[in-house]
Protein backbone atom coordinates (compact mmCIF):
# COMPACT_ATOMS: atom_id res chain seq x y z
CA UNK A 1 0.00 0.00 0.00
CA UNK A 2 1.50 3.36 -1.00
CA UNK A 3 1.07 6.17 1.48
CA UNK A 4 0.30 9.63 0.24
CA UNK A 5 1.01 11.43 3.50
CA UNK A 6 3.64 10.24 5.96
CA UNK A 7 4.22 12.41 9.01
CA UNK A 8 7.11 11.03 11.00
CA UNK A 9 7.86 12.10 14.58
CA UNK A 10 7.28 15.80 14.00
CA UNK A 11 7.79 18.61 16.53
CA UNK A 12 6.56 22.15 16.03
CA UNK A 13 7.03 25.15 18.29
CA UNK A 14 5.39 28.54 17.82
CA UNK A 15 7.51 31.43 18.96
CA UNK A 16 4.98 34.06 19.93
CA UNK A 17 5.27 37.31 21.85
CA UNK A 18 4.39 35.54 25.09
CA UNK A 19 7.04 32.86 24.70
CA UNK A 20 7.37 29.60 22.87
CA UNK A 21 4.36 27.30 22.63
CA UNK A 22 4.93 23.65 21.91
CA UNK A 23 2.14 22.86 19.45
CA UNK A 24 3.09 19.37 18.30
CA UNK A 25 5.49 16.85 19.80
CA UNK A 26 6.33 13.42 18.48
CA UNK A 27 3.39 13.44 16.10
CA UNK A 28 3.24 10.63 13.57
CA UNK A 29 0.49 9.94 11.06
CA UNK A 30 0.26 7.87 7.93
CA UNK A 31 -2.49 8.30 5.37
CA UNK A 32 -2.56 5.74 2.52
CA UNK A 33 -3.32 6.95 -0.97
CA UNK A 34 -6.99 7.55 -1.62
CA UNK A 35 -7.92 7.26 2.03
CA UNK A 36 -10.33 9.57 3.80
CA UNK A 37 -8.66 10.42 7.10
CA UNK A 38 -10.19 12.51 9.87
CA UNK A 39 -8.28 14.16 12.73
CA UNK A 40 -10.26 14.99 15.87
CA UNK A 41 -9.19 16.31 19.23
CA UNK A 42 -9.83 18.84 21.98
CA UNK A 43 -9.69 22.47 20.93
CA UNK A 44 -6.25 24.00 20.70
CA UNK A 45 -4.52 20.65 20.22
CA UNK A 46 -2.65 21.75 17.12
CA UNK A 47 -4.95 20.33 14.46
CA UNK A 48 -4.55 23.42 12.32
CA UNK A 49 -0.77 23.31 12.76
CA UNK A 50 -0.90 19.83 11.28
CA UNK A 51 -2.61 21.30 8.21
CA UNK A 52 0.12 23.90 7.77
CA UNK A 53 2.85 21.30 8.16
CA UNK A 54 1.39 18.94 5.58
CA UNK A 55 0.91 21.70 3.03
CA UNK A 56 4.42 22.99 3.67
CA UNK A 57 3.34 26.42 4.88
CA UNK A 58 5.30 25.87 8.10
CA UNK A 59 8.53 23.88 8.46
CA UNK A 60 8.70 21.43 11.39
CA UNK A 61 11.37 21.90 14.05
CA UNK A 62 12.25 18.24 13.86
CA UNK A 63 10.99 15.14 12.12
CA UNK A 64 9.94 14.95 8.52
CA UNK A 65 6.89 14.93 6.31
CA UNK A 66 6.76 12.98 3.07
CA UNK A 67 3.98 13.49 0.56
CA UNK A 68 3.67 11.12 -2.40
CA UNK A 69 7.27 10.08 -1.94
CA UNK A 70 8.68 13.61 -1.80
CA UNK A 71 9.91 15.25 1.37
CA UNK A 72 8.08 18.53 2.08
CA UNK A 73 10.48 21.49 1.98
CA UNK A 74 8.17 24.32 0.95
CA UNK A 75 4.57 24.85 -0.09
CA UNK A 76 3.31 21.70 -1.82
CA UNK A 77 1.46 22.44 -5.00
CA UNK A 78 -0.64 19.30 -5.15
CA UNK A 79 -2.89 20.14 -2.23
CA UNK A 80 -6.28 21.83 -2.22
CA UNK A 81 -7.43 23.57 0.95
CA UNK A 82 -10.75 24.67 2.39
CA UNK A 83 -11.42 26.31 5.74
CA UNK A 84 -14.33 27.10 8.03
CA UNK A 85 -14.59 30.50 6.35
CA UNK A 86 -15.25 30.02 2.60
CA UNK A 87 -12.95 33.02 1.85
CA UNK A 88 -14.37 33.63 -1.61
CA UNK A 89 -13.32 36.84 -3.33
CA UNK A 90 -16.37 39.13 -3.38
CA UNK A 91 -15.34 40.95 -6.58
CA UNK A 92 -15.27 37.73 -8.61
CA UNK A 93 -18.19 35.63 -9.80
CA UNK A 94 -18.52 32.13 -8.37
CA UNK A 95 -17.00 30.59 -11.51
CA UNK A 96 -14.07 33.01 -11.46
CA UNK A 97 -13.53 32.20 -7.78
CA UNK A 98 -13.38 28.50 -8.59
CA UNK A 99 -10.91 29.22 -11.42
CA UNK A 100 -8.51 31.11 -9.13
CA UNK A 101 -6.15 28.15 -8.42
CA UNK A 102 -5.71 27.56 -12.15
CA UNK A 103 -4.37 31.10 -12.50
CA UNK A 104 -1.67 30.27 -9.97
CA UNK A 105 -0.72 26.62 -9.94
CA UNK A 106 1.74 25.15 -12.44
CA UNK A 107 1.34 24.16 -15.24
CA UNK A 108 -2.15 25.63 -15.63
CA UNK A 109 -1.11 29.25 -15.09
CA UNK A 110 0.84 29.33 -18.34
CA UNK A 111 -2.04 27.85 -20.30
CA UNK A 112 -4.78 29.73 -18.55
CA UNK A 113 -5.45 32.33 -21.23
CA UNK A 114 -5.30 29.84 -24.07
CA UNK A 115 -7.49 27.21 -22.44
CA UNK A 116 -9.84 29.52 -20.63
CA UNK A 117 -12.98 28.19 -22.33
CA UNK A 118 -12.08 24.61 -21.45
CA UNK A 119 -11.20 25.49 -17.84
CA UNK A 120 -14.41 27.43 -17.54
CA UNK A 121 -16.51 24.48 -18.68
CA UNK A 122 -14.64 22.27 -16.17
CA UNK A 123 -15.50 24.73 -13.42
CA UNK A 124 -19.14 24.82 -14.46
CA UNK A 125 -19.25 21.01 -14.49
CA UNK A 126 -17.68 20.85 -11.02
CA UNK A 127 -20.16 23.42 -9.70
CA UNK A 128 -22.93 21.26 -11.11
CA UNK A 129 -21.75 18.19 -9.20
CA UNK A 130 -22.00 20.10 -5.88
CA UNK A 131 -25.48 21.39 -6.71
CA UNK A 132 -24.55 24.91 -7.79
CA UNK A 133 -25.83 24.54 -11.35
CA UNK A 134 -26.74 27.97 -12.72
CA UNK A 135 -25.03 29.94 -9.95
CA UNK A 136 -21.70 30.39 -11.75
CA UNK A 137 -22.36 33.97 -12.79
CA UNK A 138 -23.58 35.06 -9.35
CA UNK A 139 -21.35 36.78 -6.84
CA UNK A 140 -20.50 35.12 -3.51
CA UNK A 141 -22.58 37.57 -1.47
CA UNK A 142 -25.69 36.41 -3.34
CA UNK A 143 -25.16 32.87 -2.00
CA UNK A 144 -26.06 31.34 1.37
CA UNK A 145 -23.32 30.12 3.69
CA UNK A 146 -23.75 26.50 2.63
CA UNK A 147 -23.61 27.42 -1.05
CA UNK A 148 -20.46 29.48 -0.47
CA UNK A 149 -18.87 26.49 1.21
CA UNK A 150 -19.78 24.30 -1.78
CA UNK A 151 -18.07 26.83 -4.05
CA UNK A 152 -15.08 26.81 -1.72
CA UNK A 153 -14.86 23.01 -2.07
CA UNK A 154 -14.92 23.40 -5.86
CA UNK A 155 -12.09 25.92 -5.65
CA UNK A 156 -10.07 23.44 -3.59
CA UNK A 157 -10.60 20.71 -6.19
CA UNK A 158 -10.48 22.49 -9.58
CA UNK A 159 -6.77 21.81 -10.19
CA UNK A 160 -7.22 18.05 -9.50
CA UNK A 161 -5.15 17.97 -6.31
CA UNK A 162 -4.09 14.53 -5.16
CA UNK A 163 -4.60 15.68 -1.58
CA UNK A 164 -7.48 17.66 -0.08
CA UNK A 165 -6.93 19.38 3.26
CA UNK A 166 -10.07 20.46 5.11
CA UNK A 167 -9.91 22.51 8.30
CA UNK A 168 -13.33 22.38 9.98
CA UNK A 169 -15.01 23.25 6.68
CA UNK A 170 -18.58 22.76 7.90
CA UNK A 171 -18.26 24.10 11.45
CA UNK A 172 -20.07 27.37 10.77
CA UNK A 173 -23.08 25.79 9.07
CA UNK A 174 -26.42 24.75 10.53
CA UNK A 175 -27.01 21.05 11.18
CA UNK A 176 -29.10 20.34 8.08
CA UNK A 177 -26.78 22.16 5.69
CA UNK A 178 -23.84 20.42 7.29
CA UNK A 179 -25.34 16.98 6.64
CA UNK A 180 -26.09 17.97 3.05
CA UNK A 181 -22.47 18.92 2.57
CA UNK A 182 -21.28 15.64 4.09
CA UNK A 183 -23.08 13.95 1.21
CA UNK A 184 -21.58 16.38 -1.31
CA UNK A 185 -18.08 15.66 0.00
CA UNK A 186 -18.76 11.91 0.17
CA UNK A 187 -19.87 11.87 -3.48
CA UNK A 188 -16.96 14.00 -4.69
CA UNK A 189 -14.48 11.77 -2.89
CA UNK A 190 -16.02 8.56 -4.23
CA UNK A 191 -16.14 9.95 -7.75
CA UNK A 192 -12.67 11.50 -7.95
CA UNK A 193 -10.73 9.40 -5.43
CA UNK A 194 -8.32 11.94 -3.92
CA UNK A 195 -6.73 11.59 -0.48
CA UNK A 196 -8.44 13.64 2.25
CA UNK A 197 -7.33 14.87 5.63
CA UNK A 198 -10.33 16.34 7.41
CA UNK A 199 -9.69 18.26 10.62
CA UNK A 200 -12.89 18.53 12.64
CA UNK A 201 -14.28 18.58 16.15
CA UNK A 202 -17.53 16.94 15.05
CA UNK A 203 -17.18 13.24 15.90
CA UNK A 204 -20.26 12.23 13.89
CA UNK A 205 -18.88 14.03 10.88
CA UNK A 206 -15.55 12.26 11.26
CA UNK A 207 -17.19 8.85 11.71
CA UNK A 208 -19.62 9.30 8.84
CA UNK A 209 -17.03 10.40 6.29
CA UNK A 210 -13.71 8.86 7.24
CA UNK A 211 -12.02 5.50 6.70
CA UNK A 212 -9.93 6.10 9.80
CA UNK A 213 -10.28 8.62 12.59
CA UNK A 214 -7.16 9.85 14.38
CA UNK A 215 -7.54 11.28 17.89
CA UNK A 216 -5.08 13.95 18.99
CA UNK A 217 -4.10 14.69 22.57
CA UNK A 218 -4.22 18.10 24.21
CA UNK A 219 -1.27 20.37 23.51
CA UNK A 220 1.41 19.42 22.69
CA UNK A 221 -0.62 17.40 20.23
CA UNK A 222 0.17 13.91 19.04
CA UNK A 223 -1.92 11.03 17.78
CA UNK A 224 -3.06 8.95 20.74
CA UNK A 225 -5.53 6.67 19.00
CA UNK A 226 -6.41 5.60 15.48
CA UNK A 227 -9.85 4.13 14.95
CA UNK A 228 -10.71 2.33 11.74
CA UNK A 229 -14.31 2.97 10.72
CA UNK A 230 -15.33 -0.33 9.14
CA UNK A 231 -18.82 0.74 8.13
CA UNK A 232 -19.76 -0.29 4.59
CA UNK A 233 -19.76 2.24 1.76
CA UNK A 234 -21.58 4.02 0.29
CA UNK A 235 -22.88 5.29 3.61
CA UNK A 236 -26.25 6.97 3.91
CA UNK A 237 -27.22 9.43 6.64
CA UNK A 238 -29.43 6.77 8.25
CA UNK A 239 -26.30 4.98 9.40
CA UNK A 240 -25.77 7.74 11.96
CA UNK A 241 -28.60 6.25 14.00
CA UNK A 242 -27.37 2.67 13.97
CA UNK A 243 -25.73 1.25 17.11
CA UNK A 244 -22.46 0.34 15.37
CA UNK A 245 -22.11 4.00 14.31
CA UNK A 246 -22.92 5.44 17.71
CA UNK A 247 -20.58 2.92 19.35
CA UNK A 248 -17.69 4.37 17.38
CA UNK A 249 -18.70 7.93 18.24
CA UNK A 250 -18.89 6.99 21.93
CA UNK A 251 -15.50 5.37 21.84
CA UNK A 252 -13.93 8.47 20.24
CA UNK A 253 -15.72 10.70 22.68
CA UNK A 254 -14.49 8.73 25.68
CA UNK A 255 -10.92 8.92 24.42
CA UNK A 256 -11.10 12.68 23.90
CA UNK A 257 -12.60 13.13 27.37
CA UNK A 258 -9.69 11.13 28.73
CA UNK A 259 -6.97 13.18 26.97
CA UNK A 260 -8.63 16.46 27.88
CA UNK A 261 -8.42 15.63 31.55
CA UNK A 262 -4.97 14.14 31.30
CA UNK B 1 -42.29 58.38 -0.77
CA UNK B 2 -39.52 57.86 1.77
CA UNK B 3 -36.79 57.85 -0.86
CA UNK B 4 -38.12 61.09 -2.37
CA UNK B 5 -37.91 62.65 1.08
CA UNK B 6 -34.38 61.33 1.44
CA UNK B 7 -33.34 62.88 -1.88
CA UNK B 8 -34.78 66.25 -0.95
CA UNK B 9 -33.41 66.40 2.58
CA UNK B 10 -29.89 67.68 1.71
CA UNK B 11 -31.46 70.61 -0.16
CA UNK B 12 -33.93 71.24 2.63
CA UNK B 13 -31.18 71.32 5.26
CA UNK B 14 -29.04 73.68 3.18
CA UNK B 15 -31.93 76.08 2.66
CA UNK B 16 -32.80 75.89 6.38
CA UNK B 17 -29.22 76.80 7.26
CA UNK B 18 -29.35 79.89 5.04
CA UNK B 19 -32.75 80.92 6.43
CA UNK B 20 -31.56 80.61 10.04
CA UNK B 21 -28.37 82.52 9.22
CA UNK B 22 -30.34 85.28 7.48
CA UNK B 23 -32.89 85.58 10.29
CA UNK B 24 -30.23 85.55 13.01
CA UNK B 25 -28.33 88.39 11.32
CA UNK B 26 -31.50 90.47 10.98
CA UNK B 27 -33.03 89.76 14.40
CA UNK B 28 -29.80 90.39 16.33
CA UNK B 29 -28.84 93.26 14.02
CA UNK B 30 -25.36 91.83 13.42
CA UNK B 31 -22.99 94.28 11.78
CA UNK B 32 -22.18 93.23 8.22
CA UNK B 33 -18.47 93.76 8.89
CA UNK B 34 -18.77 91.01 11.50
CA UNK B 35 -21.10 88.59 9.71
CA UNK B 36 -22.91 89.49 6.50
CA UNK B 37 -26.24 87.82 5.71
CA UNK B 38 -26.25 85.10 3.06
CA UNK B 39 -28.30 87.36 0.79
CA UNK B 40 -25.55 89.97 0.95
CA UNK B 41 -23.03 87.26 0.14
CA UNK B 42 -25.10 86.20 -2.89
CA UNK B 43 -25.39 89.82 -4.03
CA UNK B 44 -21.60 90.14 -3.82
CA UNK B 45 -21.32 86.88 -5.77
CA UNK B 46 -23.48 88.33 -8.56
CA UNK B 47 -21.64 91.65 -8.49
CA UNK B 48 -18.12 90.17 -8.63
CA UNK B 49 -18.98 87.11 -10.72
CA UNK B 50 -16.18 87.58 -13.19
CA UNK B 51 -13.18 87.66 -10.78
CA UNK B 52 -14.84 85.02 -8.59
CA UNK B 53 -15.22 82.70 -11.56
CA UNK B 54 -11.58 83.17 -12.51
CA UNK B 55 -10.34 82.58 -8.96
CA UNK B 56 -12.63 79.55 -8.56
CA UNK B 57 -11.20 78.03 -11.72
CA UNK B 58 -7.63 78.58 -10.49
CA UNK B 59 -8.40 76.97 -7.11
CA UNK B 60 -10.15 74.06 -8.79
CA UNK B 61 -7.34 73.21 -11.16
CA UNK B 62 -4.53 73.64 -8.62
CA UNK B 63 -6.46 71.42 -6.19
CA UNK B 64 -7.08 68.77 -8.83
CA UNK B 65 -3.43 68.85 -9.92
CA UNK B 66 -2.25 68.44 -6.33
CA UNK B 67 -4.82 65.73 -5.75
CA UNK B 68 -3.78 63.82 -8.86
CA UNK B 69 -0.20 63.82 -7.52
CA UNK B 70 -1.51 62.67 -4.15
CA UNK B 71 -3.43 59.75 -5.71
CA UNK B 72 -0.47 58.56 -7.77
CA UNK B 73 2.05 58.94 -4.95
CA UNK B 74 -0.38 57.70 -2.30
CA UNK B 75 -1.17 54.47 -4.15
CA UNK B 76 2.49 53.69 -4.83
CA UNK B 77 3.58 54.44 -1.26
CA UNK B 78 0.56 52.60 0.15
CA UNK B 79 1.42 49.47 -1.85
CA UNK B 80 5.05 49.69 -0.70
CA UNK B 81 4.07 50.18 2.94
CA UNK B 82 1.47 47.40 2.80
CA UNK B 83 3.86 45.03 1.04
CA UNK B 84 5.86 44.05 4.10
CA UNK B 85 5.56 44.43 7.85
CA UNK B 86 9.12 45.71 8.11
CA UNK B 87 8.49 48.62 5.74
CA UNK B 88 5.16 49.28 7.45
CA UNK B 89 6.76 49.50 10.88
CA UNK B 90 9.69 51.54 9.61
CA UNK B 91 7.83 54.11 7.56
CA UNK B 92 4.76 54.61 9.72
CA UNK B 93 6.31 56.78 12.47
CA UNK B 94 8.01 58.91 9.82
CA UNK B 95 4.71 59.45 8.02
CA UNK B 96 2.85 60.25 11.21
CA UNK B 97 5.52 62.76 12.14
CA UNK B 98 5.28 64.31 8.71
CA UNK B 99 1.51 64.44 8.84
CA UNK B 100 1.61 66.14 12.25
CA UNK B 101 3.43 69.17 10.82
CA UNK B 102 0.83 71.87 10.09
CA UNK B 103 1.01 72.43 6.37
CA UNK B 104 0.59 76.18 6.84
CA UNK B 105 4.09 76.11 8.33
CA UNK B 106 5.43 74.50 5.18
CA UNK B 107 3.91 77.00 2.75
CA UNK B 108 6.55 79.73 3.33
CA UNK B 109 9.27 77.17 2.56
CA UNK B 110 7.52 76.17 -0.66
CA UNK B 111 7.17 79.83 -1.61
CA UNK B 112 10.89 80.34 -1.00
CA UNK B 113 11.64 77.40 -3.28
CA UNK B 114 9.13 77.92 -6.05
CA UNK B 115 8.09 81.56 -5.76
CA UNK B 116 4.60 83.01 -5.36
CA UNK B 117 2.06 81.34 -7.62
CA UNK B 118 0.36 78.06 -8.32
CA UNK B 119 3.20 75.60 -7.66
CA UNK B 120 3.17 76.04 -3.84
CA UNK B 121 -0.64 75.66 -3.88
CA UNK B 122 -0.44 72.42 -5.88
CA UNK B 123 2.27 71.06 -3.58
CA UNK B 124 0.40 72.00 -0.41
CA UNK B 125 -2.75 70.30 -1.70
CA UNK B 126 -0.62 67.24 -2.47
CA UNK B 127 1.14 67.20 0.91
CA UNK B 128 -2.04 67.47 2.92
CA UNK B 129 -4.07 64.90 0.99
CA UNK B 130 -1.72 61.98 0.28
CA UNK B 131 -1.61 60.72 3.85
CA UNK B 132 -5.15 59.26 4.13
CA UNK B 133 -4.66 57.57 0.76
CA UNK B 134 -1.42 55.88 1.88
CA UNK B 135 -2.93 54.75 5.17
CA UNK B 136 -6.03 53.29 3.52
CA UNK B 137 -4.20 51.47 0.74
CA UNK B 138 -1.75 50.02 3.26
CA UNK B 139 -4.61 49.00 5.58
CA UNK B 140 -6.39 47.27 2.70
CA UNK B 141 -3.30 45.15 2.06
CA UNK B 142 -2.51 44.53 5.72
CA UNK B 143 -5.97 43.23 6.61
CA UNK B 144 -5.93 40.43 4.04
CA UNK B 145 -7.38 37.19 5.46
CA UNK B 146 -4.43 34.96 6.46
CA UNK B 147 -6.34 31.80 5.48
CA UNK B 148 -6.84 33.09 1.95
CA UNK B 149 -3.11 33.77 1.79
CA UNK B 150 -2.53 30.16 2.94
CA UNK B 151 -4.80 28.82 0.19
CA UNK B 152 -2.81 30.68 -2.43
CA UNK B 153 0.62 29.97 -0.95
CA UNK B 154 -0.19 26.26 -0.79
CA UNK B 155 -0.78 26.47 -4.55
CA UNK B 156 2.70 27.87 -5.03
CA UNK B 157 1.73 31.54 -5.32
CA UNK B 158 4.51 34.07 -4.78
CA UNK B 159 4.06 37.44 -3.09
CA UNK B 160 3.38 39.18 -6.40
CA UNK B 161 0.62 36.68 -7.31
CA UNK B 162 -1.06 37.23 -3.95
CA UNK B 163 -0.87 41.00 -4.38
CA UNK B 164 -2.26 40.97 -7.93
CA UNK B 165 -5.02 38.41 -7.36
CA UNK B 166 -6.15 39.42 -3.89
CA UNK B 167 -4.29 42.32 -2.29
CA UNK B 168 -4.80 45.02 -4.88
CA UNK B 169 -8.44 44.21 -5.75
CA UNK B 170 -9.45 44.08 -2.10
CA UNK B 171 -7.72 47.44 -1.49
CA UNK B 172 -10.06 49.21 -3.92
CA UNK B 173 -12.86 50.03 -1.47
CA UNK B 174 -10.30 51.39 0.99
CA UNK B 175 -8.72 53.51 -1.75
CA UNK B 176 -11.95 54.97 -3.09
CA UNK B 177 -13.23 55.60 0.43
CA UNK B 178 -10.08 57.58 1.20
CA UNK B 179 -10.40 59.69 -1.97
CA UNK B 180 -13.60 61.27 -0.65
CA UNK B 181 -11.82 62.38 2.53
CA UNK B 182 -8.63 63.38 0.75
CA UNK B 183 -10.29 65.64 -1.85
CA UNK B 184 -11.77 67.90 0.84
CA UNK B 185 -8.34 68.08 2.52
CA UNK B 186 -6.77 69.00 -0.82
CA UNK B 187 -9.01 72.09 -0.99
CA UNK B 188 -7.84 73.09 2.49
CA UNK B 189 -4.22 72.80 1.32
CA UNK B 190 -4.74 74.91 -1.77
CA UNK B 191 -6.58 77.68 0.05
CA UNK B 192 -4.05 77.80 2.89
CA UNK B 193 -1.28 78.27 0.37
CA UNK B 194 -3.22 80.84 -1.66
CA UNK B 195 -3.96 82.83 1.49
CA UNK B 196 -0.30 82.95 2.52
CA UNK B 197 1.16 83.79 -0.86
CA UNK B 198 -0.47 83.79 -4.28
CA UNK B 199 -1.84 86.16 -6.86
CA UNK B 200 -4.87 84.15 -7.89
CA UNK B 201 -7.34 81.65 -6.43
CA UNK B 202 -10.17 81.80 -3.93
CA UNK B 203 -7.77 81.88 -0.96
CA UNK B 204 -6.06 84.93 -2.45
CA UNK B 205 -9.51 86.48 -3.08
CA UNK B 206 -10.52 85.90 0.55
CA UNK B 207 -7.32 87.44 1.91
CA UNK B 208 -7.63 90.42 -0.43
CA UNK B 209 -11.32 91.07 0.25
CA UNK B 210 -10.71 90.67 3.99
CA UNK B 211 -8.02 93.32 4.03
CA UNK B 212 -10.42 95.65 2.16
CA UNK B 213 -13.21 94.93 4.71
CA UNK B 214 -15.41 93.50 1.91
CA UNK B 215 -16.97 90.89 4.17
CA UNK B 216 -19.82 89.90 1.81
CA UNK B 217 -17.21 89.13 -0.86
CA UNK B 218 -15.21 87.05 1.65
CA UNK B 219 -18.31 85.00 2.38
CA UNK B 220 -19.18 84.74 -1.31
CA UNK B 221 -15.72 83.21 -1.91
CA UNK B 222 -16.14 80.88 1.09
CA UNK B 223 -19.49 79.67 -0.23
CA UNK B 224 -17.99 78.96 -3.66
CA UNK B 225 -15.22 77.00 -1.96
CA UNK B 226 -17.82 74.93 -0.14
CA UNK B 227 -19.63 74.28 -3.42
CA UNK B 228 -16.43 73.10 -5.11
CA UNK B 229 -15.73 70.80 -2.17
CA UNK B 230 -19.22 69.29 -2.23
CA UNK B 231 -19.20 68.76 -6.00
CA UNK B 232 -15.84 67.00 -5.96
CA UNK B 233 -16.81 64.91 -2.94
CA UNK B 234 -19.97 63.82 -4.74
CA UNK B 235 -17.96 62.99 -7.86
CA UNK B 236 -15.61 60.71 -5.92
CA UNK B 237 -18.46 59.17 -3.95
CA UNK B 238 -20.01 58.23 -7.29
CA UNK B 239 -16.72 56.81 -8.55
CA UNK B 240 -16.46 54.77 -5.35
CA UNK B 241 -19.88 53.18 -5.74
CA UNK B 242 -19.33 52.60 -9.45
CA UNK B 243 -16.02 50.75 -9.07
CA UNK B 244 -16.64 48.85 -5.84
CA UNK B 245 -20.27 47.89 -6.02
CA UNK B 246 -19.34 44.43 -4.73
CA UNK B 247 -17.97 45.89 -1.51
CA UNK B 248 -21.21 47.72 -0.76
CA UNK B 249 -23.23 44.62 -1.52
CA UNK B 250 -21.07 42.21 0.41
CA UNK B 251 -20.92 44.41 3.49
CA UNK B 252 -24.70 44.74 3.36
CA UNK B 253 -25.17 41.00 3.13
CA UNK B 254 -22.75 40.56 6.02
CA UNK B 255 -24.78 42.98 8.12
CA UNK B 256 -28.06 41.27 7.28
Explain what this protein looks like in three dimensions.
The complex is a heterodimer of chains A (262) and B (256). Chain A is α/β, with parallel strands linked by helices and 262 residues long. Chain A has 2 domains: 1-16 and 27-78 and 162-246, Rossmann fold (3-Layer(aba) Sandwich); 86-160, no CATH class. Chain A is built from 8 helices and 10 strands. The radius of gyration of chain A is 19 Å and the shape is globular. Chain A starts with a strand and ends with a helix. Chain B is mostly helical and 256 residues long. Chain B has one domain (34-248): MetI-like (MetI-like fold), CATH 1.10.3720.10. Chain B has helices spanning 2-27, 38-47, 49-83, 85-100, 103-114, 118-142, 146-154, 159-196, 202-211, 215-243, 245-255. Chain B starts with a helix and ends with a helix. Chains A and B meet through strand 6 of A and helix 7, helix 8 and helix 11 of B.
Amino acid sequence: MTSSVDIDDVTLTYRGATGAVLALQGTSLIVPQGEFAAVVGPSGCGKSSLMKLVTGLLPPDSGQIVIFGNRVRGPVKIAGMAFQNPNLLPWRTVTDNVLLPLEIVEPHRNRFRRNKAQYRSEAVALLKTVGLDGFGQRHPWELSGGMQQRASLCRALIHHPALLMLDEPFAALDAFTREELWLVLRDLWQKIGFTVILVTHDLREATFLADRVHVMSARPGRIVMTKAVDLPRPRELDICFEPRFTDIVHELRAKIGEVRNA
Amino acid sequence: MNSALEKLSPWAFTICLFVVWELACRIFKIDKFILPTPSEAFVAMAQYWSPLLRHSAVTLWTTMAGFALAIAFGIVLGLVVGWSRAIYRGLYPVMIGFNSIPKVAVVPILIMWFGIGEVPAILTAFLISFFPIVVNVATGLATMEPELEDVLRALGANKLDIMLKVGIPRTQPYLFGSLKVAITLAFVGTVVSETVGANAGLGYQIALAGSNFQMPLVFAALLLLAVEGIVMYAAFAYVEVYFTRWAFRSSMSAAA
